[in-house]
Protein 1
Amino acid sequence: MDLFKTWEQVNEEKFSHSAPSTKEIMNAIQQDSHSTIAELQKRLRYKLYWITGGGIVTTLWMLFNLQHKELLLILGIFQIQGLIFLLPIWACYYKMRKSISVSANALSHMKANAALINKALQIELFVGLGTVPWSVMGGVLLSNYYAGRTISDALQNPTYVITIVVVLVIAIPLMFYSGQKANNYTYGKYIQKLNENIAHMEHS
Amino acid sequence: MSAERQVTYINLVQMHAGIIHKVINLYVDNFEDRKDLYQEVLLQAWKSFQTFKGDSTFSTWLYKVCLNTVLTYRKREVKLRQIMTEVDVPEYPPDKSNAELLYYLVRQLNDVDRMLMSLHLEGYKNVEIAEITGITQTNVNVKIFRLKEQIIEQFKKEANGSI
């Protein structure tokens, strides 16, 4: 039996479709991509917008409240934190735009996808985890500050310190666990399949 | 990209649309996924069309774009009720024609083997398959040899009525 001739028959029976109309092609090329990379890129882009927007608002607020030295200190820490997060998110976002070539060979393309997806998910988790401690501490200190107590007063009060520590001890692992769980639910099977295919291609 | 380039792209895609249907049908069962993937391939191909310099034929280039898009596509989580109505899972061919059986056997292969076998059956040489997939040529030779043996064996079993 000739496999090639049989395949020609498969082609005729299974894959013969009418060509897409010009309108169909135009509609397709004008839409947004639904690839996993495009999805994650969108998520990172929104994070960039939030952090940049938050940074601008906070800076403006700081400029109009220069007399509140302690408050400036807390907000200054928030700003530095934002900047620290901004850089890896931006770097990953930029890399996603530049380094994925759909016309590269399949193995390179799959490896680039797997690496970028893992990187993006790691960054998201890192940003989430990094935000929790500062948000908890900032929230407690700011509420104290508005209640008329100074930051040093709050830090000398064991109740507040214990509250911060307990919240952190619970919140960080919880955040880590739920983040991992959510990523695994959404992308777990997909990443596993991608890695399996890569391994299969690399070994005979 | 210029309007002229756009017209060229549309004409080329219309001429080679069968490749897109073929790759998608070989990999995706769900109707909605097929529809989404079809549009995604057209979009991805258009985005990288500016880098297409004609080093390979357009059909080879499009094959590569299709495979890359399909192999990195995250399929929908299909709910049970949808599976019952929408998913076109290839069943064992009832009419047992050679073409039906070959289609069934190729679809039974894992993603990578399916890619290799379909490229081979399309008439690509092993060196070209190595270039498209990124797998070393030695591996391509070995894998395709094994896959063909496996498929021929299945055909023999079918002839003996033991499949």
Protein 2
Amino acid sequence: VTRPLTNSEEYDVDLVCLLKASKTEFTQKSLKEAVGAEVALYAEARNMTKPLEEGRRCWTLNYADGAQFHMDILPALPDAQRYQTMLMEKGCRVLASDAASPGTLSPLPTRPCRNMGRLRMTGRRAIRWATPPGSGTGCASSSPSARRPSASVRASPRASTTYPVNPAENFADKWAEEPKKRKNFDRWLSQARSDFALYLRASPFSEMPALLREHLGADFVDRMLAAMLPTVAAGLASPAIAASTSNSSDMQRAERAIDQIHRAGPQSKPWAGS
Amino acid sequence: LLTLDEVKTAIAFDQPKLNASANGREILVEGSYLVFENDVVTAPAGPITEFEIKMEFSDLYPRRGPKVFEVGGRIPRNPDRHINGGGDCCVTVWEHWLATAPDHSLGSFINGPLNEYFLSQFWVEKTGKWPFGERPHGLKGLEEAYADALEIPNKREDLLYPLRLLSQDWPKGHWLCPCGSGKLLRHCHRDGLMALHRRVLPSVARRMLGRLKSEAKPRPSRRRGSNI
């Protein structure tokens, strides 16, 4: 469940509808249609006035206006074992444990840097991080990682975003027809890069940049930090390094940077015109 | 033509404290410029240092170089610090970079000459020394930079003729070779010159010639304009 940040937004409930069936019994199309028919019957039985919306991979059930609530229902077949194996092979143990029990999110781990991927996923709730409407990054999978298309977007003639679970699936398959989707995705990706670079590059790892906290949602970040181990939380709350240590380390780093540039060959020298 | 989206993409991860906006055909980039070691992806201790800057990019980049200003007042406004009174930074001789760097993308400029300039400013602040050297002011510095780019001795008379040859869309084989042998180009250093012609494009060579002429003109008062 993604809780809204403001009163004008809706609760976004993502439901994975896992059928006890196998791939031999359904095609992707028939699986989606079967679930869609059930959801339509449910909506009719509950006298829901808003029409059932069909997405590319899911069905969206919109509740009445006052409810501020919609549910994305994602048809899926059990395939967790495959995802779990793939994630374990890639060294993502925490995600692999999620894959085994889809739909659950465990508390934010205690090592913020190594687990940035998780923060990024849960950070969908932030205002700046709202997935742009129609960016085409919806998905059909019981894997938690499925909501995160790879950042590697290949250039024209045919754009593609790679999907680690199923390389044959291309999240960018509609971009040629609807260029706005690509633009929205690029804008989203650029903002994501900038926001996380604030933490990864612009400040010490022991500090949470104010702008990143704001963009991810201050309440969300505070809750996550509070859930972390006290020692780590204390580290994030305190000034990183004593000033004198910092200065000497800056000089050492600058010296190292100068050596690197000398080895590669400097590209420029300052000059002043008359 | 350079677009705002391209600028935003170039700075998004590398320089997250910079913001880009469009102003007509100009793209403004403002904020804190972060100085790092080469090829740093993540910096556990943050950047080495940072400077408040403003940059103005024409949509004709890289044909037209950017203007870079240090706006935080950290660098003393002293020509010997390669900065002018208005904070206009003398980052590099633009045509030299165009002629010598293999990649002229915005990212390459931001992580190349710009990083070297501000790393140098940090080093001068701490030690008083320019880690990568500096060029003489004015015409002498231009001549030195162009001679470096053409890999020839730094003499004005040796510089102008090769630049005239390189300014041609197709250097003429019946012209005299710039090496001074007295032979025709086609019977002497034709291959070497053609290789140079591929690296130093005619438009760049023409701009070098133009700037050499304009810097050589006597001026009524000392003025320091954009040096990129």
